[in-house]
Protein backbone atom coordinates (compact mmCIF):
# COMPACT_ATOMS: atom_id res chain seq x y z
CA UNK A 1 0.00 0.00 0.00
CA UNK A 2 2.84 2.41 0.71
CA UNK A 3 4.55 1.25 -2.45
CA UNK A 4 5.90 4.09 -4.57
CA UNK A 5 7.23 2.02 -7.45
CA UNK A 6 6.70 3.81 -10.72
CA UNK A 7 5.80 7.04 -8.87
CA UNK A 8 7.51 10.39 -9.24
CA UNK A 9 7.72 13.01 -6.51
CA UNK A 10 9.03 16.53 -6.03
CA UNK A 11 10.60 17.35 -2.66
CA UNK A 12 11.13 21.03 -1.78
CA UNK A 13 13.00 22.01 1.42
CA UNK A 14 16.10 19.87 1.71
CA UNK A 15 18.94 21.92 3.18
CA UNK A 16 21.02 19.19 4.83
CA UNK A 17 20.81 15.69 6.27
CA UNK A 18 18.81 16.91 9.27
CA UNK A 19 16.03 18.44 7.13
CA UNK A 20 12.57 16.92 7.63
CA UNK A 21 12.09 17.07 3.84
CA UNK A 22 15.18 14.87 3.46
CA UNK A 23 13.66 12.24 5.78
CA UNK A 24 10.49 12.23 3.66
CA UNK A 25 12.61 12.00 0.49
CA UNK A 26 14.44 8.99 1.93
CA UNK A 27 11.23 7.32 3.10
CA UNK A 28 9.54 7.61 -0.30
CA UNK A 29 12.68 6.77 -2.30
CA UNK A 30 13.24 3.66 -0.16
CA UNK A 31 9.73 2.55 -1.15
CA UNK A 32 10.50 2.98 -4.86
CA UNK A 33 9.82 6.64 -5.76
CA UNK A 34 11.94 8.53 -8.28
CA UNK A 35 12.47 12.07 -7.02
CA UNK A 36 13.20 15.62 -8.02
CA UNK A 37 14.83 17.59 -5.20
CA UNK A 38 14.99 21.37 -5.20
CA UNK A 39 17.44 23.49 -3.26
CA UNK A 40 17.59 27.12 -2.27
CA UNK A 41 20.79 28.74 -3.67
CA UNK A 42 23.35 28.19 -0.91
CA UNK A 43 22.38 24.54 -0.34
CA UNK A 44 23.24 23.31 -3.85
CA UNK A 45 26.34 21.39 -2.79
CA UNK A 46 24.66 19.76 0.24
CA UNK A 47 21.71 18.60 -1.83
CA UNK A 48 23.95 17.28 -4.61
CA UNK A 49 25.99 15.34 -2.03
CA UNK A 50 22.91 13.92 -0.32
CA UNK A 51 21.35 12.91 -3.62
CA UNK A 52 24.26 10.48 -4.19
CA UNK A 53 22.82 8.43 -1.31
CA UNK A 54 19.56 7.64 -3.13
CA UNK A 55 19.36 4.44 -5.17
CA UNK A 56 17.96 6.21 -8.19
CA UNK A 57 19.64 9.51 -9.03
CA UNK A 58 17.18 12.37 -8.42
CA UNK A 59 16.72 15.38 -10.63
CA UNK A 60 18.29 18.26 -8.66
CA UNK A 61 17.00 21.74 -9.44
CA UNK A 62 17.22 25.24 -7.94
CA UNK A 63 14.00 26.79 -6.64
CA UNK A 64 13.24 29.83 -4.54
CA UNK A 65 9.57 29.37 -3.63
CA UNK A 66 9.20 33.15 -3.53
CA UNK A 67 9.72 33.21 -7.29
CA UNK A 68 6.94 32.19 -9.70
CA UNK A 69 9.51 31.95 -12.50
CA UNK A 70 11.56 29.42 -10.49
CA UNK A 71 8.45 27.37 -9.72
CA UNK A 72 7.40 27.36 -13.40
CA UNK A 73 10.90 26.28 -14.48
CA UNK A 74 10.89 23.39 -11.99
CA UNK A 75 7.59 21.99 -13.26
CA UNK A 76 8.59 22.46 -16.92
CA UNK A 77 11.76 20.44 -16.28
CA UNK A 78 9.91 17.75 -14.33
CA UNK A 79 7.37 17.44 -17.13
CA UNK A 80 10.20 16.94 -19.65
CA UNK A 81 11.98 14.42 -17.46
CA UNK A 82 9.13 12.49 -15.75
CA UNK A 83 6.14 13.25 -18.04
CA UNK A 84 3.90 13.81 -14.99
CA UNK A 85 4.03 13.83 -11.20
CA UNK A 86 2.43 11.84 -8.37
CA UNK A 87 3.33 13.82 -5.24
CA UNK A 88 4.87 17.00 -3.87
CA UNK A 89 6.48 17.61 -0.48
CA UNK A 90 6.48 21.28 0.53
CA UNK A 91 9.07 21.69 3.29
CA UNK A 92 10.04 25.35 2.92
CA UNK A 93 9.54 27.97 5.60
CA UNK A 94 11.24 31.23 6.48
CA UNK A 95 10.91 34.29 8.69
CA UNK A 96 13.59 36.95 9.15
CA UNK A 97 15.68 36.09 12.22
CA UNK A 98 14.79 39.24 14.17
CA UNK A 99 11.09 38.31 14.02
CA UNK A 100 11.87 35.14 16.00
CA UNK A 101 13.40 36.87 19.00
CA UNK A 102 11.68 40.25 19.42
CA UNK A 103 8.34 40.71 21.21
CA UNK A 104 5.49 39.69 18.88
CA UNK A 105 3.99 43.20 18.89
CA UNK A 106 7.22 44.39 17.24
CA UNK A 107 6.60 42.19 14.14
CA UNK A 108 7.42 44.34 11.12
CA UNK A 109 5.17 44.66 8.06
CA UNK A 110 7.98 43.34 5.91
CA UNK A 111 8.77 40.43 8.21
CA UNK A 112 5.09 39.45 8.25
CA UNK A 113 4.86 39.65 4.46
CA UNK A 114 8.01 37.57 3.88
CA UNK A 115 7.06 34.89 6.44
CA UNK A 116 3.56 34.49 5.03
CA UNK A 117 4.74 34.55 1.41
CA UNK A 118 7.53 31.96 1.75
CA UNK A 119 5.88 29.74 4.36
CA UNK A 120 2.20 29.76 3.36
CA UNK A 121 1.46 31.36 -0.04
CA UNK A 122 4.11 29.18 -1.68
CA UNK A 123 1.96 26.10 -1.01
CA UNK A 124 -0.71 27.58 -3.29
CA UNK A 125 1.80 28.46 -6.02
CA UNK A 126 3.45 25.04 -5.89
CA UNK A 127 0.16 23.11 -5.87
CA UNK A 128 -1.11 25.17 -8.82
CA UNK A 129 2.09 24.44 -10.73
CA UNK A 130 1.83 20.72 -10.02
CA UNK A 131 -1.82 20.36 -11.14
CA UNK A 132 -1.24 19.82 -14.89
CA UNK A 133 1.38 17.17 -14.07
CA UNK A 134 -0.89 15.46 -11.51
CA UNK A 135 -3.66 15.39 -14.12
CA UNK A 136 -1.41 13.36 -16.41
CA UNK A 137 -1.35 10.68 -13.67
CA UNK A 138 -5.05 10.86 -12.81
CA UNK A 139 -4.42 12.51 -9.43
CA UNK A 140 -1.76 13.45 -6.91
CA UNK A 141 -0.88 14.13 -3.31
CA UNK A 142 0.63 17.20 -1.63
CA UNK A 143 2.16 17.28 1.84
CA UNK A 144 3.33 20.28 3.83
CA UNK A 145 4.85 20.70 7.30
CA UNK A 146 3.34 22.65 10.13
CA UNK A 147 3.83 23.14 13.87
CA UNK A 148 1.55 23.39 16.92
CA UNK A 149 2.55 27.06 17.13
CA UNK A 150 -0.24 27.53 14.52
CA UNK A 151 -2.78 26.90 17.29
CA UNK A 152 -0.99 27.78 20.53
CA UNK A 153 1.60 30.28 21.63
CA UNK A 154 5.25 29.20 21.95
CA UNK A 155 7.97 31.65 23.04
CA UNK A 156 9.59 33.42 20.07
CA UNK A 157 7.71 31.37 17.43
CA UNK A 158 5.89 34.66 16.77
CA UNK A 159 5.07 35.42 13.13
CA UNK A 160 5.92 31.84 12.16
CA UNK A 161 2.92 30.73 14.24
CA UNK A 162 0.74 33.10 12.24
CA UNK A 163 2.25 31.76 9.00
CA UNK A 164 1.58 28.15 10.09
CA UNK A 165 -2.04 29.04 10.94
CA UNK A 166 -2.37 30.44 7.41
CA UNK A 167 -0.64 27.34 6.03
CA UNK A 168 -3.07 24.98 7.78
CA UNK A 169 -6.07 26.97 6.50
CA UNK A 170 -4.47 26.87 3.05
CA UNK A 171 -4.30 23.06 3.28
CA UNK A 172 -8.07 22.94 3.86
CA UNK A 173 -8.97 25.41 1.10
CA UNK A 174 -6.66 23.73 -1.41
CA UNK A 175 -8.00 20.29 -0.49
CA UNK A 176 -11.54 21.49 -1.19
CA UNK A 177 -10.49 23.11 -4.46
CA UNK A 178 -8.46 20.30 -6.02
CA UNK A 179 -10.24 17.26 -4.58
CA UNK A 180 -12.45 16.84 -7.66
CA UNK A 181 -9.26 16.23 -9.65
CA UNK A 182 -8.31 13.42 -7.25
CA UNK A 183 -5.58 15.54 -5.67
CA UNK A 184 -5.17 15.34 -1.87
CA UNK A 185 -3.56 18.03 0.30
CA UNK A 186 -2.43 17.29 3.86
CA UNK A 187 -0.02 18.53 6.51
CA UNK A 188 2.02 16.94 9.24
CA UNK A 189 2.33 19.02 12.38
CA UNK A 190 5.68 17.78 13.65
CA UNK A 191 7.03 18.00 17.17
CA UNK A 192 10.17 20.12 17.64
CA UNK A 193 13.33 18.73 16.00
CA UNK A 194 16.79 20.32 15.98
CA UNK A 195 17.19 21.39 12.35
CA UNK A 196 18.65 24.47 10.68
CA UNK A 197 15.25 26.21 10.64
CA UNK A 198 14.69 25.40 14.32
CA UNK A 199 18.08 26.89 15.23
CA UNK A 200 16.69 30.27 14.16
CA UNK A 201 14.13 30.25 16.97
CA UNK A 202 15.46 31.79 20.16
CA UNK A 203 15.27 29.39 23.14
CA UNK A 204 14.36 26.40 20.96
CA UNK A 205 16.15 23.90 23.26
CA UNK A 206 13.82 24.76 26.11
CA UNK A 207 10.85 23.76 23.89
CA UNK A 208 12.56 20.37 23.30
CA UNK A 209 12.91 19.95 27.06
CA UNK A 210 9.23 20.70 27.74
CA UNK A 211 8.15 18.08 25.17
CA UNK A 212 10.56 15.52 26.66
CA UNK A 213 9.07 16.06 30.12
CA UNK A 214 5.39 16.27 29.21
CA UNK A 215 4.60 14.43 25.94
CA UNK A 216 2.76 11.13 26.55
CA UNK A 217 5.71 9.24 24.99
CA UNK A 218 8.12 11.24 27.24
CA UNK A 219 10.47 11.98 24.35
CA UNK A 220 10.86 14.04 21.24
CA UNK A 221 10.24 12.74 17.72
CA UNK A 222 12.96 12.35 15.10
CA UNK A 223 12.92 13.14 11.40
CA UNK A 224 12.65 9.42 10.51
CA UNK A 225 9.30 9.25 12.29
CA UNK A 226 8.03 12.27 10.38
CA UNK A 227 9.44 10.73 7.16
CA UNK A 228 7.47 7.51 7.65
CA UNK A 229 4.25 9.36 8.50
CA UNK A 230 4.85 11.55 5.44
CA UNK A 231 5.27 8.52 3.20
CA UNK A 232 1.97 7.18 4.55
CA UNK A 233 0.06 10.41 3.81
CA UNK A 234 1.56 10.64 0.33
CA UNK A 235 0.81 7.00 -0.49
CA UNK A 236 -2.32 5.23 -1.69
CA UNK A 237 -2.76 3.87 1.84
CA UNK A 238 -4.01 7.38 2.73
CA UNK A 239 -6.21 7.71 -0.38
CA UNK A 240 -9.26 8.61 1.73
CA UNK A 241 -7.46 11.39 3.66
CA UNK A 242 -7.35 15.03 2.57
CA UNK A 243 -7.47 18.45 4.24
CA UNK A 244 -5.94 16.84 7.34
CA UNK A 245 -3.27 18.05 9.76
CA UNK A 246 -1.71 14.92 11.29
CA UNK A 247 0.09 15.44 14.61
CA UNK A 248 3.44 13.60 14.77
CA UNK A 249 4.65 14.92 18.11
CA UNK A 250 4.85 12.02 20.59
CA UNK A 251 1.33 13.08 21.65
CA UNK A 252 2.32 16.46 23.14
CA UNK A 253 -0.75 18.19 21.66
CA UNK A 254 -3.19 16.26 23.88
CA UNK A 255 -1.64 17.44 27.13
CA UNK A 256 -3.26 20.11 29.30
CA UNK A 257 -0.41 20.56 31.76
N1 LIG B 1 12.25 21.48 13.04
C1 LIG B 1 11.11 21.62 13.69
O1 LIG B 1 11.08 21.65 14.92
C2 LIG B 1 9.83 21.71 12.92
C3 LIG B 1 8.63 21.37 13.58
C4 LIG B 1 7.44 21.47 12.87
C5 LIG B 1 7.46 21.91 11.55
N2 LIG B 1 8.64 22.22 10.94
C6 LIG B 1 8.59 22.67 9.54
O2 LIG B 1 9.24 21.72 8.75
C7 LIG B 1 9.65 22.37 7.54
C8 LIG B 1 11.09 22.00 7.25
O3 LIG B 1 11.95 22.61 8.20
P1 LIG B 1 13.15 21.85 8.91
O4 LIG B 1 12.92 21.93 10.36
O5 LIG B 1 13.38 20.55 8.26
O6 LIG B 1 14.39 22.84 8.65
P2 LIG B 1 15.37 23.03 7.39
O7 LIG B 1 16.09 24.29 7.68
O8 LIG B 1 16.15 21.82 7.17
O9 LIG B 1 14.35 23.23 6.18
C9 LIG B 1 13.76 24.47 5.86
C10 LIG B 1 13.89 24.58 4.36
O10 LIG B 1 13.19 25.72 3.87
C11 LIG B 1 13.93 26.15 2.76
N3 LIG B 1 13.55 27.51 2.37
C12 LIG B 1 13.50 28.63 3.14
N4 LIG B 1 13.16 29.69 2.35
C13 LIG B 1 13.02 29.22 1.09
C14 LIG B 1 12.71 29.81 -0.15
N5 LIG B 1 12.48 31.14 -0.28
N6 LIG B 1 12.66 29.02 -1.26
C15 LIG B 1 12.89 27.69 -1.17
N7 LIG B 1 13.19 27.06 -0.03
C16 LIG B 1 13.26 27.83 1.10
C17 LIG B 1 15.38 26.05 3.20
O11 LIG B 1 16.25 26.07 2.09
C18 LIG B 1 15.35 24.71 3.91
O12 LIG B 1 15.65 23.68 2.99
C19 LIG B 1 9.39 23.85 7.74
O13 LIG B 1 8.14 24.17 7.18
C20 LIG B 1 9.32 23.97 9.25
O14 LIG B 1 8.58 25.08 9.67
C21 LIG B 1 9.83 22.12 11.61
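Sequence proposed for the structure above (257 residues):
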Amino acid sequence: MSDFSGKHGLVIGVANKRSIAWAIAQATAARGARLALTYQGRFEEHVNDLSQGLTEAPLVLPCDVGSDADIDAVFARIDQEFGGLDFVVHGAAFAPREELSSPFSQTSRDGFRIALDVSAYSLIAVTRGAMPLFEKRGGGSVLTLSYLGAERVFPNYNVMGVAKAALEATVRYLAADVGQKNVRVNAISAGPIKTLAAAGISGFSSILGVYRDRAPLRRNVDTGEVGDAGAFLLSDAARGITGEVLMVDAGFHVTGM
